[in-house]
Amino acid sequence: MHARIFVLLFLIFLFILPPTLQAKVITVNNVTVQVQTMPDSSFQWLFKFALPPLPAKVNIDYAVLSFGVNIMSSPAGKFLEILAADSSGTGKVAQYNALPVTGKLPKKKTGAGIIDLDITQLVDLWINGGVTNKGILVVSHRRIARKALQVRMVNRAPGFKKPMVKIYYTESN
Fold this sequence. Notes:
This protein is mainly beta. It is built from 2 helices and 10 strands. Strand 2 and strand 3 form a beta hairpin.
């Protein structure tokens, strides 16, 4: 008798719960990079890529931009800022967050390393916020005087790790 009640309650419980959502991932391998030099011997990177087609109602769980770097000499700073590019590709759009998204160079003194930058906020803005994707600027952190991206100290290492974007998402009802 107790077993039947237990099975009946279990079946009712299964039908009441909403179905679980399966997370999905899309990888964008076609990412172009431009190096834009600045007057103070620093530079910024402009990453451009087309967003893949996604379902109409989607939650962006996580998005990451990964690429290889070669640290030739230890730069003065380590912190990076991740900004949405404007239509010219050289400047940032209006501040989308009072606390900017940041990243950090690898801890290595010299040699090749991988940078994984969390771009979830920007991808969600482009997909669900109605903002057009003009690219991502990766710059030395503007509020820190020591520049991370300095000429002859840091450069990309595409042979080590090509730039790519991974977008993890779930469909919402």
